[in-house]
Amino acid sequence: MGLWVYFLIGWITLWWVLAQLYFPNGYSVFNDFISAMGNPNKNPDGHLFFDIGTFIAGVLIIPFFYYLKAKLNVNKFGLTYVIAGIIGCVGFMLVGSFQEHMTGLHEFAAITAFGGFSVSAFFLLIDLIRKKRWSTVISIYWIYILLLIIMLIVPCIEGIYKYPYKPGEIFSSLQEWIFMANIVFWLINLYIFI
């Protein structure tokens, strides 16, 4: 499973960097949401890199949750975080399928992806605390909690320099990227410390 995790990171990085390279006038995490890379109206030449890479990454992450289930000897409660993680993977696949300009479907897909992984992280945390695996909790969740705090502080910092939100936006693009990094680091730490 070790090489698999690094392959996944390389896979998504390659496809997303290719999408960013074709982004007209350059892509910026400060101004562009993640899904803008897959929007054919905003990225006509590079959107397929994002769409294909994201969809396949969602498929490729699913076996990790089966690995997690076997590694942790999951009980009925533990199935909650395994199933939620797989739901997050399906959401990731849907983000690659329903592009940003498909407003309702894309928002559902993004909420499913971020929500599935977040619910998985929460219930895994509860399970690890119940099992009194304190060193594992600290090893996996220190960066997760740190990035969540940073994500909450970003609007205060951004508000000093500009108004980052447009009507209807819940997060700024930078917050979305921090949230994505949070999920990636959580998955990496899960592999390393479980």
Keywords:
73% helix; 194 residues; mainly alpha; 6 helices
Task: Summarize the structure in words.
The protein is an all-alpha fold and 194 residues long. It is 73% helix and 0% strand. The protein contains six helices and no strands. The chain has helices spanning 2-21, 47-72, 79-97, 103-130, 134-161, 173-193.
The SSE string, one letter per element, is HHHHHH
Unreliable segments of 5+ consecutive residues: none
Distance between the termini: 12 Å
Provide the residue-averaged pLDDT.
83
Helical content stands at over 70%
- The total of helices stands at 6
Q: Based on CA inertia axes, which overall geometry fits?
A: globular
Number of domains: 1
| Biggest pleated sheet | none
> Hey, roughly how much beta strand do the residues contain?
under 5%
- Structural class from helices and strands? mainly alpha
The radius of gyration over CA amounts to 17 Å
Tell me the number of strands: 0
